[in-house]
Specification:
This protein is α+β, with helices and mostly antiparallel strands and about 260 residues long. The chain has a single domain, classed as L,D-transpeptidase catalytic domain-like (Beta Barrel), CATH 2.40.440.10. The chain contains 5 helices and 13 strands.
Length: about 260
């Protein structure tokens, strides 16, 4: 599969004379002054009291009753910050975390993202996958290809590109001068949410990330500037199971997902 493509994003960038930093979830990892090949060290945190995905698998193996989504998306303390509970009524039907059958040629541990279906699959053994609802890129910001998780960060800072600030000048009121430029400190109000996983190919940052969101109601829609949004509880769950170096496959719209 070829390197991640940006389709209309690249065309519009060229027309505007802008750089690839048009991607709306650019962060400290691709901002001036950040060492390009340095992995972002994990920050200490207090994980959820339960391991929701492990509980889901155990529940399925035991053949026990319906999934307790209230518990899955409950609020909890995560290091210095509180992850708020998700109102289940805000989540579109079918986009909450679920253990599913999934036949693929990809190895267990791989992440497969299907933007057209608005799902992310974390491949498990024995033809299974943990499926998460996502909010992928809207028209003009869609992309596909193969990458890997180069580094990970908890409660990441956000550095919106100059083009985004120009389009949305009201953002300036929420930004401050941080170590790597004008941005927003990590925390519950940050658009990148509780976790970010940074997608690279080789030694090149794609500028795309898998990250949390403060807008859980956007999951199941094409709403982002190319990055992959997840519910905070879901991205925390995936983050804990995903080491640096994990293979990430982002499918094209006409691409079959199974063997």
């Amino acid at each position: 599969m070829s390197f991640i493509t940006r389709r209309n994003l690249l065309a519009s960038a060229a027309a505007a004379g802008a750089s690839l930093t048009l991607a709306g979830c650019v962060t400290s990892q691709s901002s001036p002054g950040f060492e390009a090949n340095a992995a972002v060290p994990p920050q200490p945190n207090s994980p959820p009291a339960a391991a929701p995905s492990e509980a889901l698998i155990a529940q399925a193996d035991a053949g026990n009753g319906p999934i307790d989504y209230e518990a899955m998306y409950a609020g909890f303390q995560d290091g210095s910050f509180q992850v708020p509970a998700v109102k289940l009524s805000q989540i579109k039907k079918g986009f909450m975390r679920k253990l599913v059958d999934y036949q693929t040629v990809e190895q267990p541990g791989t992440i497969v993202i299907d933007p057209a279906a608005r799902y992310l699959y974390h491949i498990l053994p024995n033809g299974k996958a943990m499926r998460y609802g996502i909010g992928p890129g809207r028209e003009g910001f869609m992309w596909s290809g193969v990458a890997e998780i180069h580094s990970k960060q908890e409660w990441p800072d956000w550095y919106p590109p100059k083009e985004m600030i120009a389009r949305e000048p009201q953002l300036r009121k929420q930004l401050a001068q941080l170590q790597s430029g004008l941005g927003m400190h990590g925390g519950p109000g940050n658009p990148l949410g509780a976790r970010a996983m940074y997608l690279w190919q080789g030694n090149k940052d794609t500028l795309y990330r898998i990250h949390g969101t403060v807008e859980p109601w956007s999951i199941g829609t094409h709403a982002s500037s190319g990055c992959i949004r997840m519910i905070n509880q879901d991205v925390i769950d995936l983050y804990a199971q995903t080491p640096v170096g994990t293979r990430v496959v982002v499918l094209g719209h006409a691409q079959p997902r199974v063997s």
